[in-house]
């Protein structure tokens, strides 16, 4: 299949789903479809972060299955995760699709089945489908990624057997994957910057008297845990903090060495960001841009641990305790010790 056809589906299928769910309005003129926004609030929330989109997709799929009288057979599969139940739910879904839609091939039904069952499996932490069979393990977020490492990972070590056109196909898609990753990072930075401009008048998220008195704006979206070290969390809002240029290039990256992170200042960023996330999630502001579970994931990934995993929902005091444990060597003699008290606003 040509690359263009793959990416036509990549954009076309989500747009149709948003149309079916009435988030978009749709009209057709001759052989063209025209779309307009019907529900801007929900669309904005979906666009805010990938997990919001997944949560919406989960609810939408359950509603469609319920309306189609298919929900019970899916419930049975998730309750009894056997090969027999897998074949039963897949067979019933395939027959239903062929009977009530324009799709008449089992192969295409199988592709659709994976997109239906796996998001539910991920949310329920259950097995789903993989290569036409019940998956050996519960579905992970990586299993849901579109074109996740398909070409290079599966074909690595076989480069000599590839034709020129096959190799070019792989390289083109790797470029698209990198472009999509960069887009997600820049999008996350834009969201945090806009939120900071609205909520904090563009001031730095790290309170520093000299920067505040001089009215210097926070124009730098800084990764608390560096993108080059942990790229898997580089597009998480919880890993991005708005700083002034002085803080970014003089404190976070001393002497403008952007590949180097100052641990003293990283600790300041962590406690300050914790306070900002807590304020957003527990405050009265309706625009909740942060997610507690994603915050836990950022901390575990950035600090290469799992000790944040079992912290109770919204227990920020415990989060600070554990951050202090990891940075105990960077607290007592912290170069920026004067900033700790004014940025550590979570009491415990």
Précis, in short:
Helices cover 57% and strands 9% of the residues. By secondary structure, the protein is mainly α. Helix 2 packs across helix 3.
Give the neighbour order of strands across the main sheet. Answer: 1-2
Q: Which structural class should the secondary elements be placed in? A: mainly alpha
Could you give the distance between the termini? 58 Å
- Percentage of helical residues? 55-70%
Strand content: 5-15%
Unreliably modeled segments? 1-7, 147-158
What general form does the structure show? elongated
Largest sheet entry: 2 strands, antiparallel
Search tags:
two-stranded antiparallel ribbon; mainly alpha; single chain; 348 residues
Helices and strands, with pairings:
Elements: H1 3-20, E1 24-29, E2 32-37, H2 40-48, H3 50-67, H4 71-79, H5 83-100, H6 106-124, E3 127-130, E4 133-138, H7 141-144, H8 150-155, H9 164-200, H10 209-213, E5 220-223, E6 240-243, H11 245-252, H12 263-282, H13 292-302, H14 316-326, H15 337-343
Antiparallel strand pairs: 1-2, 3-4, 5-6
